[in-house]
Amino acid sequence: MGDPLDSREAQAAEIIDRLHEEYPDSTISLQFSNRLELLVAVVLSAQCTDERVNEVTEDLFENYETAEDYAEASEEQLAEDIYGVTFHNNKGGYLKGIGRKLADEHDGEVPDTMSELTDLPGVGRKTANVVLQHGHDVVEGIVVDTHVQRLTRRLGLTERERPEAIEDDLTSLVPREEWQAFTHLFIDHGRAVCTARNPDCADCVLEDICPSSKLDGETDLASGESWT
């Protein structure tokens, strides 16, 4: 296995530096032109690929321009209009509820606080963090998606399993100015190299400091299971 650095702070700093060099243009891959579109896209992206979400929202955003548009549509119509994303029926309900709450309580605008965002249907801390960061330029934490969960455990930055607990560990390790970039770097690396089932350790810029490297290690620290 690789040889991680002496402290988790040093390990995090080295990982971030290398990933910045490897992915210099790393950023959010969802397509949107305003805060409402961002909020909708992030809600739809739960357990769904950004690529599929972008395909669906291309038409969706032409037909739904305001919070009132979502509030006035039926859940069935919304579910049909987002067909192709995972759990489209549930998410159709979320979108209607979001539209109604934004229209009734926020003058149709997307709020800029964690508490107000997480009060919206279908919006958890991860979604709220993305909206705050990319819609309001407010960075309150680190977005922990499935890639960040997997890679931070593999790389020895945390042993936690729940996203909230992982975020707590990361915010103590990662400099605040890197909180936003951190997620996108890990997503890019998780998609390109450090995939869930068959990571390409031989072509990984982090292999020499990764305690999960399957080139000479036995265990995937992300799952706790042996490499097969």
From TrEMBL:
<dbReference type="InterPro" id="IPR003651">
    <property type="entry name" value="Endonuclease3_FeS-loop_motif"/>
</dbReference>
<keyword id="KW-0378">Hydrolase</keyword>
<keyword id="KW-0540">Nuclease</keyword>
<feature type="domain" description="HhH-GPD">
    <location>
        <begin position="44"/>
        <end position="192"/>
    </location>
</feature>
<dbReference type="Pfam" id="PF10576">
    <property type="entry name" value="EndIII_4Fe-2S"/>
</dbReference>
<feature type="binding site">
    <location>
        <position position="210"/>
    </location>
    <ligand>
        <name>[4Fe-4S] cluster</name>
    </ligand>
</feature>
<dbReference type="InterPro" id="IPR023170">
    <property type="entry name" value="HhH_base_excis_C"/>
</dbReference>
<dbReference type="InterPro" id="IPR011257">
    <property type="entry name" value="DNA_glycosylase"/>
</dbReference>
<dbReference type="Pfam" id="PF00730">
    <property type="entry name" value="HhH-GPD"/>
</dbReference>
<keyword id="KW-0408">Iron</keyword>
<dbReference type="InterPro" id="IPR003265">
    <property type="entry name" value="HhH-GPD_domain"/>
</dbReference>
<keyword id="KW-0255">Endonuclease</keyword>
<dbReference type="GO" id="GO:0140078">
    <property type="term" value="F:class I DNA-(apurinic or apyrimidinic site) endonuclease activity"/>
</dbReference>
<dbReference type="Pfam" id="PF00633">
    <property type="entry name" value="HHH"/>
</dbReference>
<dbReference type="GO" id="GO:0141016">
    <property type="term" value="F:G/T mismatch-specific thymine-DNA glycosylase activity"/>
</dbReference>
<dbReference type="GO" id="GO:0003677">
    <property type="term" value="F:DNA binding"/>
</dbReference>
<keyword id="KW-0238">DNA-binding</keyword>
<dbReference type="GO" id="GO:0046872">
    <property type="term" value="F:metal ion binding"/>
</dbReference>
<keyword id="KW-0004">4Fe-4S</keyword>
<feature type="binding site">
    <location>
        <position position="194"/>
    </location>
    <ligand>
        <name>[4Fe-4S] cluster</name>
    </ligand>
</feature>
<keyword id="KW-0411">Iron-sulfur</keyword>
<keyword id="KW-0456">Lyase</keyword>
<comment type="function">
    <text>DNA repair enzyme that has both DNA N-glycosylase activity and AP-lyase activity. The DNA N-glycosylase activity releases various damaged pyrimidines from DNA by cleaving the N-glycosidic bond, leaving an AP (apurinic/apyrimidinic) site. The AP-lyase activity cleaves the phosphodiester bond 3' to the AP site by a beta-elimination, leaving a 3'-terminal unsaturated sugar and a product with a terminal 5'-phosphate.</text>
</comment>
<dbReference type="GO" id="GO:0006285">
    <property type="term" value="P:base-excision repair, AP site formation"/>
</dbReference>
<feature type="binding site">
    <location>
        <position position="201"/>
    </location>
    <ligand>
        <name>[4Fe-4S] cluster</name>
    </ligand>
</feature>
<keyword id="KW-0227">DNA damage</keyword>
<keyword id="KW-0234">DNA repair</keyword>
<keyword id="KW-0479">Metal-binding</keyword>
<comment type="similarity">
    <text>Belongs to the Nth/MutY family.</text>
</comment>
<dbReference type="InterPro" id="IPR000445">
    <property type="entry name" value="HhH_motif"/>
</dbReference>
<feature type="binding site">
    <location>
        <position position="204"/>
    </location>
    <ligand>
        <name>[4Fe-4S] cluster</name>
    </ligand>
</feature>
<protein>
    <recommendedName>
        <fullName>Endonuclease III</fullName>
        <ecNumber>4.2.99.18</ecNumber>
    </recommendedName>
</protein>
<dbReference type="GO" id="GO:0051539">
    <property type="term" value="F:4 iron, 4 sulfur cluster binding"/>
</dbReference>
<dbReference type="InterPro" id="IPR005759">
    <property type="entry name" value="Nth"/>
</dbReference>
<keyword id="KW-0326">Glycosidase</keyword>
